[in-house]
Amino acid sequence: MEPRSHGVATVRSAEPSPNGATTIPELMGGWPLIGHLPDFLKNPVSMLDRGWREQGELVRFRLGPREFALFTGPEAHDCYFRAPEDQLSAKAVYQFTVPIFGRGVAYDASPEIMDEQLGFLFPALRDAAMRRYARVMFEETMQLVDALGEDGVIDLPHALNELTVKIASRCLIGEEVREQVDSGFAEAYHDLQNGINVIGFFLPRLPIAAHRSRDRARRKVAEIFSRIMEARRLSGAAPDDFLQALMHARYKDGRALSDDEITGILLTALFAGQHTSAVLATWTGLELFRAPSYLAKIRDEMQDVYRETGIVSLEGLKRQVVLENAVRENERLHPPLILLVRKVLKPLRYRDHIVPAGTLAVVSPAVAHRLSHVFADPERFAPERFASPAYEHKQHHYALIGFGGGKHRCMGEHFAYLQIKAIWTVLLDRFDFSLDTAFPAPNYSSWVTGPKAPCRVRYRRRSHASMLR
User: Fold this and answer.
1) What is the pLDDT of residues 353-373, one digit of tens each?
2) Cα–chain-centroid distance for residue 7?
3) Which of 225, 238, 354, 443 is buried deepest, with most CB atoms within 10 A?
4) Cβ contacts of residue 286 below 8 Å, gap of 6+?
5) What is the per-residue burial (b if ≥16 Cβ within 10 Å, else e) of 445-458?
6) How far is C-alpha 418 from the geometric centre of its chain's CA atoms?
7) Alpha helices (H) in 334-409, listed in sequence order
8) Which domains occur in the chain, in start order?
9) What is the pTM of this model?
10) Residue 23 in contact with residue 17, Cβ under 8 Å?
């Protein structure tokens, strides 16, 4: 391992190229033809962390025939996230989402149309809408609470995935979709989630079982949404929800959205507001269960916020900064996306290195969030690091990147935080929890990294009177 100075990995010397730049140092241990693929499949975070420790802020590696360049550290992240789209392209990489979101939507649309489509999402994520969502989040979590009874054991990832599907479908789509969650929609959506996998990243049309299920599920979801839209048109019903907003929306040229475009945008919103939320909510609970002193602080804060009204609201959830710092610390320790990828369309310079066109440029939140020169004692669960006077995440704009950065920063971040805080506010008000299994390792086989199974949690209803109503 190379020595490090001031907490920053030292880059090995490299041969100068004709244009005056030096070649990017390569991660050691690659194999002929397959490169570093075995190490990546075994433990991608360990492999990427080794790249940082061996070679520093910029290191290249190969997965099969594809060349990658890993940017690590706030300054490297700044270069990465500020690069223009015609130099570092997300669209060129995220084609694996096209079978899910559909043709002509998101990463299959032109940049101008994609910007317009994202613009349709903004009203659904503003405070006026969030006030309604806070009550929905409370009501849906209370339904889970009532179903759990007095005590028992649950599979936490499964329970929170189901709950967040119900919340997100009701908030971000419409009541009719929520009503169909238990009669086909949830199963289809689960198959769509499984369609986002490592194989699909490289070969999104490969006819494997997960992709065939994904394509059937996409057709089923489109049928469900189309039936709802047709029923609304026939009845004249126009509820105040995001689905109806899209039915009324027009592009700048005056064109209405097709049903398939509406379906794709709804799925984009649902994935933004649900999948990573469920995973981050799970990790948040797991870490809190083994941090009783911090859990006590969260419950004290809940008393301060809700002792008078007992009503979960947007304003109340915003005041829960102790809980929010716990969520943020789990974003740091357990980022749902361990890798963010862009394709280099034009050569990109960082310090004295040139990243050539055709390379896949990546940053890894899982590596970046454990840099000791950015986060003190980075392996320790310490939500206080985000409070005064430490504010470790404010040292640099790109210190905490669990939801990405730059133009493609996840629009659903605020919704995700609100949802996770609402869920755990209700659950911690009603139950005491403990792990029924060993603390789980990350499951790197999925594109969104949750805990490995089994992940069972024991719960018991608290004896004191419930504060929330």
Assistant:
1) 999 999 999 999 999 999 999
2) 28
3) 225
4) 156, 435, 439, 440, 451, 455, 457
5) ebbbbbbeeebebb
6) 14
7) 365-368
8) 4-461 (1.10.630.10)
9) 0.91
10) yes
